[in-house]
Amino acid sequence: MLGAGILKGLAETARNFLGSYVSKDRLTTVQFPEERAPRIEASRNFPFLVYDGTDPQEGLRCVSCFICEKECPPKCIFIEKSTDKKPDATGKPQFYPARFNIDVSVCMSCQICVEVCPFDAIKMDNAFELSATDRFDALLWNKQQLAKSNNYYHEIHPTEAAAVDAELAAARAKTAAAAAASAAAAAAKKLAAPPIPPTPPTNGDDIL
Amino acid sequence: MTLFFLIAAALTIVGTAAAMSLRNPIHCILSLTLGLVGLAVLYLQLGAQFVGFTQVLVYVGAVAILAVFAIMMTRSAGSPQQPAFSRSWLSGSAVAVVVFAVLAWAISSALPSTKIVPPQPAVSVNQIGDALMHKFALPLEIIGLLLTAALIGAVIVAMPERRETP
Amino acid sequence: MIVPDTVDQIFVLSKHWLLGYVPTALQPIVSAILSVAPVLVVFPLLFAITTVLERKGLGRIQNRYGPNRVGPYGFSQPIADGIKSLTKEDIVPRSADQVVHLLAPLLLVMAAFLAYAVLPIGRNMVLTNLNAGVLFFFAVGSMVELAVFMAGWSSRSKYSLLGAMRAVAQMISYEVPLVLASIVVIMASGSLSTVAIVNLQASYTSIWPHWFIFTPWGFTGFVLFMIAATAESNRSPFDLPEGESEIIAGYYIEYSGFKFALFFLGEYLGMFATSGLAITLFLGGWAAPFSFLTWIPSYIWFFAKLLALICVFIWIRGTLPRLRMDQLMGLAWKFMLPMTLLNIFTAGVWHFMPSGFTRWLVCTSLLIVPCLLLSRGLKQRKKLQIRTYRFAE
After folding, report:
1. Is A47-162 assigned to CATH 3.30.70.3270?
2. Residue C77 shares a structural domain with residue C105
3. Could you give the CA distance from residue C327 to residue C332 in angstroms, rounded to a whole number?
4. CB–CB of C371 and A2 under 8 A?
5. Do the domain assignments include residue C21?
6. If C279 and its partner were Cys, which of C221, C240, C259, C283 is the partner (CB 3.0–4.6 Å)?
7. How high is the mean pLDDT of chain C?
């Protein structure tokens, strides 16, 4: 019929118009900044440092091994190792970064620092509302600005964070099993051998 | 009423005078259009509604556009550099004065001594249509034929040439 | 005869009351001013409302909000637009023709406003009851083309000149079907006066109105008139002269600030005027659609119909893609011109046949069969083959 195409088109736009008041998928606008689209899990923007627990200083996973600083292509990471040690996730005393700076105006979000970190201490954030009024100092982030909790990591990358937590828990379980096995072996040896003065108990029970 | 007549007459005269004396051809056409609108107002003042509106419709809406298109397509884009008045303006104005005197004498001698205002017949569009269909049917058909010939000529001129098959 | 209501005639009555306070010598002038001022106020207001309605309507059609920041749901957007266009710098190119550049938008707006003089907005509410009202409307509408040409030529830019020539060609081509489509109504009503045409449609048989659109020739005439009106006001899908302004230039590319706003005002006013004429000719003017609805004032009906037509314009704009120049011209001369001539013939047949079902059958088939044949004959026959691609190896 002549004009059938036009009439079908008119019907389609009318359906669009009326449907936009009723259903959500005929009105896909997200009114920024009042509403926000949900952040996509696989997206990334700039790195952040993960800390376990509630204290950014105590729970920081980074042990300032300098691997990310060496591997960073535009060399935007600057780390200063501390002089004392603090116990890390598995209880072993480790160094920690006294200063950890990332120049975000240089960072190209390549994720190499995340890939090479052996301690799962640095991960990619996907926050994008980062505008600052100063081009230089405001875009140089220090340790306090970079440290975000593990719960935040779970929020933005749930599957990744779950995988990382599972690995860390497995590693801890392995060390605990190894420690228990060696303790059991030592106890068995002690029973078989003549009694010797008791040794002070090891301080290995700050396992999370 | 005289005031409106003066305004319309002034519009017509100014428009047509400007059409003769302006340098830019497009300006000339636009002032001629103004003069034609003045003519249409004069027709309306005389009570000839149909003629007045048709004057606007045909002259302003079609002829003026035709004229501007013609001038636009046949001239370069630069403004003309000819002087506004020709060199033989003395003899030209002498001829104009003579013609004006003759016309003025002719008109004034044709006017009756007492002003008789004949009753103006209110010509409605119905009557014009009736006349066209009954009394002036033949001229109407001839005009239609003329316009058709012009239309066909225009189409033939504008038609793309049929390419010869090699 | 319907007794004029107080509410229905409130504007007429208040004008007469106000005129009573004016000395007799000044009464014609004051009467003219009192009649003209509401037109000068109402239709630009309608223009403002239409701009925001169009943006929001198009937005919803395209799955997005329209403007929704300025007022409640964005309806004060025209105020922001007005402030913007008034405060923008008025740039005129140095090589442009200053006088013509200034006069073009003025002529456009003046021609558009003049056209409202013959539209009956309500019962007894027409500015001038001219004997040749419809002819006046078309005469004034033809001045718009001159204004468009002036705008394009005075900008001294090749693109604006091209755009102006295309626009003028389009407007001239579509003026012929526009006038021919309205001739059927003039034939049927026997008068060129808009008031007479509306009065003829303002009667009812039982509850059904006598609008001309409810006849086969009236419906066809209405459709053809609306298509031609869309093309006359350069609206989508016929907005090639101004659609190209998004890409290259249109005829008002060199205009900025208030003159640009004047062009839009003129274009929309022209759209309202042609819609108003369509309502007057085909949709019964200020007459209510059913006889039991005549208690609603006549001007309310006129503006309701006008708003409905504006919504149809917006709807079509959101639906159809733009026509190319040759498709546009082909449509005007090859399809619409024969259809309007056939329509006139059919209206004559309708007039002379006795009323009844035969009349409907004959006239409808007289219109539909040639329409189908024409459209089939005019379709471009393209032999579409499977596409083969040649890649560089």
Report:
1. yes
2. no
3. 9
4. yes
5. no
6. C283
7. 88
